[in-house]
Specification:
- By secondary structure, this protein is α/β, with parallel strands linked by helices.
- The protein has one domain: P-loop containing nucleotide triphosphate hydrolases (Rossmann fold).
- It contains eight helices and ten strands.
- The strands form two sheets. A six-stranded mixed beta sheet has the order 6-7-8-3-9-10, sandwiched between helices. Strands 2-1-4-5 form a four-stranded antiparallel beta sheet, with helices on one face.
- Helix 3 crosses helix 4.
Length: 248
Amino acid sequence: MGHLIEIRDMYKVYELGDEPVHALDGVSLTIDEGEFVAIMGSSGSGKSTMLNILGCLDTPTRGSYLLDGTEVAKRTKKELAHIRNQKLGFVFQNFNLLPRTSALENVELPDLYMGRLSPRLRRKRALGLLKRVGLGGRHSHTPAQLSGGQQQRVAIARALMNNPPVVFADEPTGNLDTKSSIEIMNLFTELSNEGITIVMVTHEDDIAAYAKRHIVMRDGKVMKDDAEDGGVKKTTDEVARLVKEALS
């Protein structure tokens, strides 16, 4: 099992007035294929900046980022867009679905940009993914006709459309009720068990407990990384204790 993600000595510095702000301050880590990782920390800790750079939505000020063995830290915006569509899937707190478009059309969207499949095969794959996430009979529904949990399932199916090796999830249960949150996290667990790498940002201990690895950040630095625990899942209380110890 190789390193899917490898970052070395990563910095992201913003100039605010006369004082530079280090959103990332010398971060180094690796994430292997099939890992389920939760990135945690308070507001301003750097976790969202980390996710944006790992997801090729932003570039570091300096440092190295190898994605599936390819250096991407200094790529152009056009090159990063191609990498995102080819190798990465995204699930956001607010779903980010096209409101007047059916669930099927929302799922098809990533391949419309890539154009790898014929219309017939694109539709077949999208329908299969909707069935995979439990929405086989809802393909013609628009987001307004779906619950929050169902919309997030559509978003997950869309993230999987181009068969990416890694899915990034930014507070994926933030707008969901408890039942829907459990269903979505169980789905992420299944995808991880199938070999898809899941990298999730969350501030909720009970949601982070679904992951097998927890990275705690503060002031742009990694304060704790329990990778050495060998992928042993933690209870919610154990995750809460880990975060408290890392930030104390």
